[in-house]
């Protein structure tokens, strides 16, 4: 139950090299679940480990509940952490695993047992308390790791890709459980993942990292609707936003031989640039009849159709410009197949525009 | 084809499959045979002969003394108080050295399992005793280190008024064990170091976050993790140390009396100084039986250790 | 002097404007340094006898026998000349021969055996393994008498091949065990992939498996070399003039008419040198091998 | 082809004679001179296996007894020769000697020659012979004002040792062997037992090791070495004592006469030239020196007996003594084998301090009647039965333990008596 | 270029135990991509390995191109397989890896080189031909494994979870690539995955396995629209279909105190059953105003909101019956938060109904 503040915090593994985490500024409000997301090597784990006290903080500071923890060892920071491979103690039973942090804090045996049983009940682990981790499935181990974190009732939860060792089905289930649990316990949580779906579904706020630098820190809808740069735009959303590098025309841009008008404020923001990067989410294409007039729709040829039941994704390349590929969301049931022609039109209201060079959002 | 399908499954099994299986089985087993046969010939036939000789009275230096005496030799072995003394020495020497070496090895492994300047060099220095030819090592201990007048140990201890100690005659067993420990500690250190380095770091980090201090981490996590390696070290060390011959031979010749003699040396003496083939064979058989009993336990341990490992892998 | 990964204060990124806190230090630095010093002290203590042996080998006998050990002296090679002129040559040759040939034989026998044992369908795998390792448990000394008698009967006393065979038998069980654990580390899919790709068993072994476990083979070989080179019991009892190995030479070197420490040190140094160097060079592999592949 | 492929790199084509010897300075000299022999006999190559005494004995006995055939020449002593001759393990050398012109059999010292004979025929030829005597530091005795009697007794020696002992860590009074092994500790101790009137067996083969005489003798020996003897006594044998005495760390040393060559060698000894010699101390017998000879024999299994003999003859004839004297030095000649050596003026010049004493010791030694009372065995410092190697060694281990202070003398003798009794029983029937 | 037929094929690992694959009947048409999907332990890998010749076929038969391959060793079946961890030969370079199966078939060096280069080009591996697998990223290794499979030009491709070692982003990319490649090469392919999204997006037809038994074998839309039983219904679709065990009422079923009418044909099929299992996909709920009349809408309380940008999922429990949880798909941007009340109504056209006991689809 504490506010966590990263204040220009940096970590430099190899002196002289690029920092793994570069002057990170981030505030996690009390009780909030913040997700750190970013591609591999972007410094997510490092940031988390700095907070946990597992990595030194080479510059700046980190504060938990107002206290600078730079020189505070892990064990005194009152945090709990869930690791990617759960880091369960293989020689201990589930109950012993969960009781370990309490034992280390000198809690008496009875109280330990009580708390462990309570957490086990909450997580449906009561029947497994005497098992060794080896004898449990991935999902069960994950829950034990969660249990070990929650018995502590710490100030902050830290989780480093806690779901990545689970299968897809399990992951979807568990992420809802974790989110719900965190809601209930209202413990400030920093959650690391490289999966943007997880980030979007779980985070109260999401911090997108790339190359050790914070790209954007916002709520999921904001991230989705107004990505601050092309990186975030491409990273958030699945399938990814179509990012097309297009030449300007008088009223907008030219795409596949078709004139796409841009809304006024975007046009203004784009200024005198020759080319701009236009981002169109798969769901922001409108599928038109293939008979439509050539000037008003963009013709494309389907490469792959992915039918998910509730919707479908068409991977296609433009008829005019075969090197440009686009992804279009279609309805649950589409008739088109590999090689079929389609005609699409972007929804002009939902366009994102970025600078070609810097990738910064334009309007 | 459908008829095949109607047939109950075991039928098909009984038909073609086992034949293929047998041929396949032999094909896969064949590479094993040379090693197996070789081992049987080299290790088992001599043991059978040992049993045969143990039932005879046969002294090499008295021609014509060979005759069947059945279990007389065994009776003599069991009434030989020296034999009991030597058996006890063997246990003390083997287990004592192994356990001390493991304990020291653990301490050294912990010391080396951290970053410090010149770690590689220190490790290289530390493993050297293991690589030294045991005969040379024993000579080294007997002369350069433990000699009462010229030895380094007494020289180093002389400021403390302990000079002139005749280590080898006053503490013969301890002296031999010291040499053995010196040689085997590096082995244990290497093994345990490997064990330490195989401990997943995230477990250690989790423990730190969970509020454990270094000692708790060691006792609660590292030690259980190392158990398998400690067992392996004890078993391997015992296998090799129970057969110690060179060190005893070179350092003390088992003396004074039989104070530092172990079974291998004692049997060797009976065989190659006493030339009493029957007696020494009988002792050999007794030793084999005792070792087998001990080994069964040790092997259980080893097997558990290794099957556990396969499970984990 | 301990090297830590912390960044010196001056290397911090300069743009830590406001908070610009105190220099960062690593906790327990002093303790680290002290433990490092202790490690050094212990390492030197363990190594010192060896160092002293080497040092002594460069002394004259007179320098070697001083109640106050001499560190400063005029080094001489006369002891080594003495050792070589007293005929260590054939013994070295025998040791090298027995070690190399027996190690090669061990590998030749152990690789197929371990491969077979690491594959699924050999029935009674664990019985066979049990057998192999149990032969290691039996004290050699119990078999020395019949071995002596048999070897004598077939006229193979003092023959290097006798030692080679015995050393092979001595090292084979451990080698099979070690190699099997290395083989087990080879992912099963690789073998399956190879069989789908149409490679016969021996080709799979040669082209796919052996390259993967070559560090393991190396470690195994090294351990066989160490034990064969240092073996004394068989050598002293079964050889005389022709087939004596270096440890036997060392024993013969202790003359009954006077212990010459310096010369002895030179001989001991020569005896230990090959294995020590091999061990130093390959210490990482050695660790892997000694732990039976339990460590990746 | 396994035959002859015993070693890697064996030279083929010439006859290789393998010689098993006990490594001692005289043998090292022989090895260093042996290229001359090879030069004179191009068809013969020599290969030496030199081992320390205990190892050599074990190895040679095992090889000869089992017909192992690794050796063409073995170095054995007057302990083994008659027994092995009786067993037919070694070759009768009389025909060879007879065939060899100038090989003067009669020149061998008679007691030595007899001890190497079985039924009057020599089965091994002596390389050197030795008795035992007492070496002492003349300079120290002078300083201390002690006069060494012409025939000292053991109590006198004990008193001298006490007076010359400077205490722990410094120069001690005497060096006496304490290292187990019948050829080590047992040799001097046996002479002490004998001269105290003790014996191993009575004529009925009853073991006598707990008799009062033996007790007294052993107690005396152990006490002497424990109170005034060298450090590390239970581990020191001939070599260790040679070092101690040669480095001036003890004032007296009772041991083999062959030690003289070593301690008088200024290269190895810091006390050369300051040494006095006295006959073996006595108590109840008129003399107590032992009789021992390292000799060369040919195992029956050797297929190269002629070549072997050629080398043995070369090594034990008079010319060899000359050769060593001229090429290596007269202090180094193998003593105690030939009477002519003692008549050689050059040898006399360097060895007059001790040579007469050696000759006298050898001539007075009496293997048939070593002690006061009658015994059923032969030998001064050993009992010439096959089991003695083992028995002597086991007993020596006990005494060595007593010297180390691990057990008491009585306990040691009790245990020894058991061993001896078991062995004795097999001779009673 | 071959038809693959499983004909009552079974595999029993432990005699006497339940078969890992139980009388499987499955036909893969020439050039078709069939996905085997199912939860862990359902026998997918075993079935694939039976086809590959890595497991014996204990009963029934397997035919490739009409030939019974029961007694044919792997290497003579003319198949290529891609393993989950790629099973690249670590000691060989990429080129050698890809050439190995050709070499084993005795193809001459030149031809091998040609084919390898061609495949490498197709997969964008030309620059890596001399690298060892160790020096490559997960995605690159995956492509090498694909390359090794395609150089062979085999009759059948087998792939066992070939994407599961890739990260989420990579997986989405690569699955489209594989589908496209297979389309182009038109080699019959059996593809194993436990991820239903992969199954739906990649398969021409999908075989759902559970407990060694084939549950349904159909095209993805059919699977989604007409699952034959509750297992398939729950397995296909993410988040999973809401499966509610409800009491019958006169015109339909009662859910959360509300009468939900059932279409006539379903009602008929349900017959006289007291209770039926009703399946409602998350997108088949209609969000109503919370002010609506209590009798006509189902009231629920939100536990977790997952906002994916393009849509959102509301995890809620019924107000009337707190132990029943439902998942509802909402629009990209919803206002509701944890604890908010919502009102929903199922789309009666899109209901799936199953027998409570057998799980069989009813109409
Ligand atoms: N112990 C270390 N020593 C040196 N560099 C490191 C170390 N750990 C991480 N790095 C580097 O720091 C950067 C950030 O690594 P970090 O592990 O924080 O990334 P991440 O975002 O967690 O990636 P992933 O999703 O792969 O876990 C990377 O470039 C990495 O190579
Ligand atoms: N070698 C084996 N010996 C005995 N049983 C086995 C073996 N391999 C698999 N099984 C059993 O057969 C069943 C099917 O296993 P299989 O590996 O085919 O499942 P799967 O569907 O591939 O699962 P996953 O998604 O986890 O890979 C399981 O119950 C498994 O336990
Ligand atoms: Mg990470
Ligand atoms: Mg599988």
UniProtKB/TrEMBL annotation, chains A, E:
PROSITE patterns: ABC_TRANSPORTER_1, ABC_TRANSPORTER_2. GO terms for biological process: carbohydrate transport. Pfam families: ABC_tran (PF00005), OB_MalK (PF17912). Residues 4-236 form the ABC transporter domain. SUPFAM superfamilies: MOP-like, P-loop containing nucleoside triphosphate hydrolases. InterPro entries: AAA+_ATPase, ABC_transporter-like_ATP-bd, ABC_transporter-like_CS, ABC_transpr_MalK-like, ABC_transpr_MalK/UgpC-like, Mo/tungstate-bd_C_term_dom, NA-bd_OB-fold, OB_MalK-like. Keywords: ATP-binding, Nucleotide-binding, Transport. GO terms for cellular component: ATP-binding cassette (ABC) transporter complex, substrate-binding subunit-containing. GO terms for molecular function: ABC-type transporter activity; ATP binding; ATP hydrolysis activity. This is Carbohydrate ABC transporter ATP-binding protein (CUT1 family).
UniProtKB/TrEMBL annotation, chain B:
Belongs to the binding-protein-dependent transport system permease family. CDD domains: TM_PBP2. InterPro entries: MetI-like, MetI-like_sf. It comes from Actinomycetospora cinnamomea. Residues 87-298 form the ABC transmembrane type-1 domain. The keyword Membrane applies. GO terms for cellular component: plasma membrane. Keywords: Cell membrane, Membrane, Transmembrane, Transmembrane helix, Transport. PROSITE patterns: ABC_TM1 (PS50928). It is found in: Cell membrane. The chain crosses the membrane at residues 32-55, 86-112, 124-144, 173-194, 229-251, 281-303. GO terms for biological process: transmembrane transport. It is a multi-pass membrane protein. SUPFAM superfamilies: MetI-like. This is Carbohydrate ABC transporter membrane protein 1 (CUT1 family). It holds the Pfam family BPD_transp_1. It comes from the Bacteria. Its main location: membrane. Gene3D superfamilies: MetI-like (1.10.3720.10).
Automatic annotation (TrEMBL), chain C:
The keyword Cell membrane applies. It comes from the Bacteria. It is found in: Cell membrane. GO terms for cellular component: plasma membrane. Residues 1-24 are annotated as: Disordered. CDD domains: TM_PBP2. It holds the Pfam family BPD_transp_1. One of its GO terms (biological process) is transmembrane transport. It is a multi-pass membrane protein. The chain crosses the membrane at residues 33-55, 91-116, 128-148, 160-179, 208-229, 235-254, 261-282. SUPFAM superfamilies: MetI-like. Its main location: membrane. Residues 92-282 form the ABC transmembrane type-1 domain. Keywords: Cell membrane, Membrane, Transmembrane, Transmembrane helix, Transport. The keyword Ribosomal protein does not apply. Belongs to the binding-protein-dependent transport system permease family. This is Carbohydrate ABC transporter membrane protein 2 (CUT1 family). It comes from Actinomycetospora cinnamomea.
